[in-house]
Amino acid sequence: MNSTTPRTSSPSRTSYAAPGVARRWKPSPFVTGSAALHVGAAAAFLAQPALWPWAMGSLVTSHLALVAAGLWPRSTLLGLNWTALPESAGRQIALTIDDGPNPEVTPRILDLLDRYDARATFFCIGDMARRYPHCVEAIVARGHAVENHSQRHRHNFSVTGPRALEREIAAAQQTLTDITGTRPLFFRAPAGLRNPFLEPVLCGLGLHLASWTRRGFDTRTRDAEVVAQRLLRGLAPRDILLVHDGNPARDAHNQPVVLEVLPRVLEAAAAAQLRCTTLRAAIAPGAEDA
Length: 290
Known about the structure:
Largest sheet: 6 strands, parallel
Organism: Paraburkholderia phenazinium
Distance between the termini: 33 Å
GO molecular function: hydrolase activity, acting on carbon-nitrogen (but not peptide) bonds
Protein name: Peptidoglycan/xylan/chitin deacetylase, PgdA/CDA1 family
């Protein structure tokens, strides 16, 4: 199958020479340009107060552009963002599972993954992991990866300041590390929404932002066929797929839709000779032990 999805952010192996290690934040050209625009507008206003309408208009436009970039989960304008696996991944895809653990759904997903000999990345919420540590332990014991999805998954995450962001993400880092014995290497923002303060925080914590190539919207859609089609349309090597074990939509028989979707996705991947890997395994050999 050939994908028409653009690979605007294809991380290279060299970008992850030291996974999990704090790195220096380098503002993206978009962020740098926005900062320059702010300085220029302020200078213009001070030099010619009559230009204040133009200066104010420039600032408003800049802020709107920053907000739009943060509301676009697959955007790379604010910094590094995994929307696909690196080229070195070859004929592999990543199945990522958000918002758990869920004591009803997670164990059943693990059984499905075992049946198809597939590996997945679980983006876990810290509070949920603390409530159901046995589920997180089972994820790791069965060969999958646990990554950071914030401590509380608050809906106002994208409008949070830098100190609060750092507290929220660092708390989840500590929670998940305590349970699994391994520090997460990746972070996924709640609903994929963020702001310009996030990337510097992630740099300081040694985390990399990960979004997806496509998602099934399986927390809203109750039709497994529709969800599967969204995930499989154009399925190709290096894709990152998103489904949920937390807050799943339910079908007419009150069963979590994801449990019907996953076999279809895994069978299609096998038919296309695509192997499911974890995000951290895609960085470099041995990264899962980092």
